[in-house]
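Pasting as-is:
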Amino acid sequence: MPIVFDQVSYSYDEKREKTRKRGIVARLRSGKRSGDQGEEPREQPAWGSTAQQEWALRNVSFTLGDGEFLGLCGHTGSGKSTLIQHMNGLLTPTEGRVIANGADLSDKKAAQRCRADIGVVFQYPEHQLFAETVLADVSFGPRNLGLSEEEATERSFEALRAVELDADAVADKSPFELSGGQQRRVALAGVIAMRPSVLVLDEPAAGLDPQARDEMLNLVARLHREGMAILMASHNMDDLARLSDRILVLNQGSVFMLGTPDEVFSRGDELRSIGLDAPFAQNVAEALRTRGVALDRELYDIEGLAAALAKRYRARCHGQAAEPQAQMRAADEGRSDGATHA
């Protein structure tokens, strides 16, 4: 199911203005004046202020295609979380449109219908676990779809297996007895049990230990290989380079770059200018190129860079070995010529 952002802008000012007007009416009814003690303080401004508005997103356009893996990155406060909340209509644009499967998500009924098909997993989703058992938590979404208890249970066990948990072993346990990595898998299973075709992930590996982190990212990669479209926000450029088909870079609420990992990470200086960076191996390769090592301008991971350097080393060693052999052959030919003339 493609999701299209068409010139999407979002202003928190508009929401604050509506809240302010409601507050004025409430104060008039209660006899309070503006500035009386108890008035809520104004929030900090978002990015991209104009004369009338302050924008968290400004003119953002892109398409998440069927089965695509789109990476999302940007400095803290660049608009990533606001964008994610637009993916299934939790927020609606101040200007522009978000279209999912042909429907404009500013229509509340259309947004409600799409939420089973566009699963959003926020950062630290384990904090949203609430039920007494893992099974009750995972089956909450399917039950809300109107499925029978039997169908909801079947989907829940299927989802737990999909996130590589032993469904029989954990179903009746409290989710709070599990490890942090397991709790995050349970939260993800609760979304997968809805059988979405699109999965939206906000820093899915944040705060996990190295082993749990690798397991989570491998799970995300497997879900993508099995056909699920994924949008994943991450601060880790190596993860985005390894997993993404394309990468969307936000800066102050606007699209700064959009392209393949090769296209995005070849512009390391521009990324660094907005507080981001290229993957580690790419930075090493660039530093080697500036020192005269002839490396192709491609996107490297650690293994690829090591292989490229090993290839160059073998070629150089072969060339050094070939040079003395050539000299020996020339000397032999010289001796043979001398003997002939004699």
